[in-house]
Amino acid sequence: MATLETVMRYHQETKHQFNRYARALGYLDWANQPNPFRRFQAAPLIQLTLRNPDEVPDRPSYEDLYRNGSVAPASISLQSISHFFEYALSITAWKQAGETKWALRSNPSSGNLHPTEGYLLIGPVPDLAPTAALYHYTPKEHGLEQRVCYSNERFAALMKDFPPHAFLVGLSSIHWREAWKYGERAFRYCQHDVGHAIGTLRIAAAALGWRMLLLEGLSDESIEGLLGLNRATDFEQAERECPDLIAMVCPADTSPREIPLSLEPSAVDELVRESLPRWQGKANRLSVDDPVAWEIIDEVTAASRKSGREPRYIALGLSSTPKEEEPLLATPLSARHVIHQRRSALAFDGKTAISADSFFKMLRRVMPGAALETAARPMPWDAIPWDPMIHLAMFVHRVNDTVPGLYMLLRDPSKKETLQKAMHEQFEWNKPARCPADLPLYILEEGNAQRVAAQVSCHQEIAGASAFSLGMIAEFEGALKTHGAWFYRRLFWETGLIGQVLYLEAEAAGVRATGIGCFFDDPVHEILGLKDTQFQSLYHFTTGGPVDDPRLTTLPAYGEHIEGATPGVDLP
Q1: d(CA 287, CA 26)
Q2: Over the stretch 465-515, which tens digit does the pLDDT of each residue have?
Q3: What CATH homologous superfamily does 60-318 map to?
Q4: Residue 332 and residue 531 in contact, taking contact as beta carbons nearer than 8 Å
């Protein structure tokens, strides 16, 4: 229970209040800003190639991602692996203001600081390697650094319970990248970013006709061993990475099968032992000076560490297809266009409204479907093997034919009575006009909520000048007591995944969105009538008509890395 107490204390102490923000330095030490790009120096770099944007076909369309069987599974090749990381973790554009230039990526990040690192553990692939190997993805170069090779037999033993051609992707976090700006609250933001990356990985897999599933049963110790994060000699003088997750990716299979949510510990140990003398590369140092120590982040990192392994299996079959949308709502945009055009809005115009149909479509896309053990789930919710724990408290401002006010979307309709009892008694809980009967959206209170939405979002106008904004309300204390302190991170991952779906839905609808990590926690709870830690707000989000900054110049993500160039290996 000590670990649970530590997590609860961290959560309470890092809340923003009207009269006190969570602790941070109070200024930005620009000279010590961490490098957003990790490299393992002296590890061979395999250059990946990007499709020429002038020759990219319109398929798959964005809507194809959500339709079963509409995307034929791509074969596992250097080209398809390149496209997978292009959609999931690559740079999508550079922005420039004066002499300052920074990169935007497929996976959003709090403050564009990008604490999340990506890894690939895969068997032999033509033109990549003749043996199984672990790679670190380098977004600046759009390349794969080969960290270690394995015998094909050892890798096959590790993957024996998974579908043919399955491979593994991993994520880790460098907490200092966020703590440099946000101080103690940074651990929260790192977890949001993991959730966004889960979304980009799953959607990238869908664009190639592949499936993805988090191996939730793995311990953090196993993840460290498989990704090489426990190798002190490889991180000398460099900022360490904390293990987040490993997910299994495989071509879509029409024959359902039971697969484990873990890897056999003995197979993990044997693979790690085999790799000991073979590692290549050492991590680069990201900041000139040592990172500022935030003891409370170290404490919550240790307390939320997952140590156990659950021998649990889950059915892997086709994802379910969401209820058919109205033909008028289908976007003709390609998946690539929507993924690459995603941006975080910096300001909204306070005028743009969205249609009720677009609004309801967005909300359908964040619904996780049936309970985990009873039916297949829609993409991307089939990637996370736990029942939904996050509900949306919504401030609706500018949705046509929809009354402005405070709403609640129940992502698990069975929790309605529990939430009603926990919230203000005077709330109406009526279905809004035109709302589809099967969408569990309720209006709690009518009225103009623009001012209060901005106030509780750290006085940020984007929360009130939008079409709608929302707070993601987690089933909090009960979930942590049921699962353990390690589930704290998963709650944030689920919010980030919701955010990623909304980001792309906004782009497809011709508007824009942005995540809001800065909000006044308990004032949000007071608006809803939540009096204890049964429910907690973990992340805010807002969607509307963007106002572009004319001072910014947009530059292409990559110049020469397009198909037709020759992939090569160099030693950085």
Answers
A1: 18
A2: 999 999 999 999 999 999 999 999 999 999 999 999 999 999 999 999 999
A3: NADH Oxidase (3.40.109.10)
A4: no
**Percentage of the chain with pLDDT > 70?**
92
Residue 433's CB: how many other CB atoms inside 10 A? 10
Domain boundaries defined on the chain: 60-318, 343-544
| Confidence at 565, pLDDT banded by 50, 70, 90 | very low
Q: Report how far residue 523's alpha carbon sits from residue 517's, in angstroms, rounded to the nearest whole number.
A: 15
User: Residue 112 — φ and ψ, nearest 5°?
Assistant: 55, 35
The whole-model pTM stands at 0.95
Count Cβ neighbours within 10 Å for each residue of 464-474 and write b for 16 or more, e otherwise.
bbbbbbbbbbb
Angle in degrees, CA 296, 300, 302, rounded to 5: 115
* Reported CATH class of domain 343-544: alpha beta
Helices vs strands, H then E, count in the chain: 15, 21
Distance CA 314, CA 336 (A): 31
pLDDT in tens, 182-237: 999 999 999 999 999 999 999 999 999 999 999 999 999 999 999 999 999 999 99
Judge whether 60-318 and 343-544 match in fold. Answer: yes
Q: Which of helix, strand or coil describes residue 93?
A: strand
Tokens (6 digits) for 111 = 């403050």
Identify the DSSP state of 72: P
Determine contact, residues 518/326, Cβ cutoff 8 Å: no
How deeply is 333 buried, as exposed, middle or buried, from its count of CB atoms within 10 A (0-12, 13-18, 19+)?
Answer: middle
What would the pLDDT profile of 104-117 be if each residue is shown by its tens digit? 999 999 999 999 99
The pLDDT score that the predictor gives to residue 318 is: 55
State how far the Cα of 409 lies from the Cα of 443, in Å rounded to an integer: 9
> What type of residue is 217?
G
Q: Quick one: tokens of 424?
A: 């203000």
pLDDT at 538: 98
- Cα 274 to Cα 228: distance, rounded to the nearest angstrom: 13
Identify whether the C-beta of residue 89 lies closer than 8 Å to the C-beta of residue 137: yes
31, with CB counted inside 10 A (0-12, 13-18, 19+), is exposed
Distance CA 18, CA 99 (A): 36
The whole-angstrom separation of Cα 360 and Cα 364 is: 6
pLDDT, tens digit (0-9, with 9 covering 90-100), for 317-354: 656 665 554 444 556 899 999 999 999 999 999 999 99
Q: Are strands 441-446 and 468-475 parallel, antiparallel or unpaired?
A: unpaired
Report whether pLDDT(177) > 60: yes
Three-class SS state of 62: coil
Question: What is d(CA 185, CA 20) in angstroms, rounded to the nearest whole number?
Answer: 13
Question: What is the per-residue burial (b if ≥16 Cβ within 10 Å, else e) of 274-310?
Answer: bbeeebbbbbebbbeeebeebebbebbbebbbbeebe
